[in-house]
């Protein structure tokens, strides 16, 4: 359906040549814009109707006071289903600390949350197929679980800013959600507007980058340099991804283009994770609650984890 | 006079929320006092973790996003 539409628009109306580079790039761009935004709106709306989007306040209430392994499993899985905005990571961090949730568990949540969410997962299935989607989600869960655990080993408490420990959180009764059909519909629409409004730029940039890669990077060059034979492509992909920031949905088209040209699966997954989970803006925001050594450690642990995941998949697949 | 507080550490959605409320109050011809709470400790004291949040006369009525027009109208009028 999306394919036909993109064909008509690119080759029919714009009159581009299907075998030309520009034609290929424009075709990729149109097809992905239509497909990804369609999926985004539908998935967010349906999730909104089901009210499957869990709020940070609820996560905090679920996780607090549980034994470590339970708290971590909950934090990781709830992190995976909460599409959270990096602008709420500070209150989230403070709220978790105040509830007495171990820092390692909080880090697990902070890793899982930007990397995996149900919206990105459905779009991954739609664009790259369910096998890769499952690989990505599974790898993300594992990294989040162990990443937080390793952070805990370094006793990160000593790097938490003093004022964080002093904040007392109130227990105001939060408004009850309206569960009538009309209320759900209104909520779902607001959710679509809010999330799409926040991430559309990242998605467009991602599709643009994917389209350029698809149209202009020769497959021979890719198979020679990024085919998975040389060990250093994975760490390079991870390091490249650190300063780059995008939403988890925004990296999908880039991954699609890379895989299409024959970049190794592990290398692609490593780049996706690095772009989605590790970013400078996110670090600067977290700097408000923890000091540089903890941030450096956080980045280091994740970079190593993504590299291992990349190598692992390159070796298996 | 109704006292409305917008909780948020200065993100764009918090600005939008404050503006939406101010506009709705003006349209309804109701005088309200809008205060932006940007101090994290004060925000957390309301039990709110996802911003922007809205507090009307000391009661949290909304969290985690820009409120819809119907909601805002109800707050300034009720």
Molecular structure report:
- The complex is a heterodimer of chains A (317) and B (78).
- Chain A is mainly alpha-helical and 317 residues long.
- Chain A has one domain (2-159, 201-316).
- Helices cover 75% and strands 0% of the residues of chain A.
- Chain A is globular and about 65 Å long.
- Chain B has one domain: 3-Layer(aba) Sandwich (Glutaredoxin).
- Chain B has 3 helices and 4 strands.
- Chain B has a 4-stranded mixed sheet with strand order 2-1-3-4.
- In chain B, strand 1 (2-7), helix 1 (12-28) and strand 2 form a beta-alpha-beta unit.
- In chain B, helix 1 packs across helix 3 (69-77).
- Classes of the chains: A mainly alpha (317), B alpha+beta (78).
- Largest inter-chain interface? A-B, 28 and 24 residues
Portion in helices of chain B: 40-55%
Q: Structural class, from secondary structure content of chain B?
A: alpha+beta
Number of distinct helices of chain B? 3
Q: Pick out the low-confidence regions of chain B.
A: none
How helical, in percent, are the residues of chain A? over 70%
- Oligomeric state as shown: heterodimer
The CATH topology annotation of chain B reads as Glutaredoxin
Number of domains of chain A: 1
User: Spans of chain A with pLDDT under 50 lasting ≥5 residues?
Assistant: none
CA-CA gap between termini of chain B: 12 Å
Identify the CATH class of chain B. Alpha Beta
Strand order of the main beta sheet of chain B, please? 2-1-3-4
What radius of gyration of chain A results from the CA coordinates?
21 Å
Number of helices, counting only DSSP H or I runs of 4 residues or more of chain A: 16
């Amino acid at each position: 359906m999306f394919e036909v539409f993109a064909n008509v628009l690119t080759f029919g109306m714009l009159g581009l040549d299907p075998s030309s580079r520009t034609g290929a790039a424009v075709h990729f761009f149109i097809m992905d814009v239509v497909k990804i935004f369609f999926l985004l709106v539908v998935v967010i709306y349906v999730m909104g109707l089901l009210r499957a989007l869990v709020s940070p306040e609820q996560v905090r209430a679920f996780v607090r006071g549980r034994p470590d392994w339970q708290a971590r499993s909950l934090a990781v899985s709830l992190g995976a289903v909460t599409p959270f905005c990096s602008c709420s990571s500070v209150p989230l961090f403070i709220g978790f600390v105040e509830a007495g949730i171990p820092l390692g568990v909080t880090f697990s949540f902070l890793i899982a949350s930007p990397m995996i969410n149900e919206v990105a997962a459905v779009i991954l299935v739609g664009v790259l197929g369910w096998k890769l989607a499952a690989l990505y989600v599974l790898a993300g869960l594992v990294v989040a679980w162990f990443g937080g655990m390793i952070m805990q080993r370094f006793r990160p408490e000593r790097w938490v800013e003093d004022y964080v420990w002093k904040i007392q959180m109130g227990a105001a009764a939060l408004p009850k959600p309206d569960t009538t059909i009309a209320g759900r519909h209104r909520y779902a629409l607001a959710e679509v507007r809010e999330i799409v409004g926040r991430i559309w730029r990242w998605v467009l940039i991602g599709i643009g980058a994917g389209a350029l890669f698809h149209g202009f990077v020769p497959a021979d060059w890719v198979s020679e340099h990024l085919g998975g034979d040389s060990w250093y492509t994975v760490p390079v992909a991870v390091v490249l991804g650190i300063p780059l920031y995008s939403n988890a949905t925004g990296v999908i088209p880039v991954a699609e283009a890379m895989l299409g040209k024959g970049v190794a699966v592990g290398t692609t997954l490593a780049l996706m994770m690095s772009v989605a989970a590790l970013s400078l803006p996110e670090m600067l925001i977290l700097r408000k609650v923890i000091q540089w050594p903890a941030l450096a450690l956080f980045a280091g642990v994740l970079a190593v984890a993504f590299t291992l995941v990349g190598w692992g998949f390159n070796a298996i697949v | 006079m109704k006292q409305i507080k917008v909780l948020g550490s200065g993100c764009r959605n918090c600005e939008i929320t404050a503006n939406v409320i101010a506009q709705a109050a003006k349209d309804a011809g109701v005088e309200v006092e809008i205060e932006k709470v940007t101090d994290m400790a004060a925000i957390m004291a309301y039990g709110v973790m996802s911003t922007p949040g809205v507090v009307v006369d000391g009661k949290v009525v909304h969290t985690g996003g820009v409120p819809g027009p119907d909601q805002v109208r109800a707050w300034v009028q009720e």
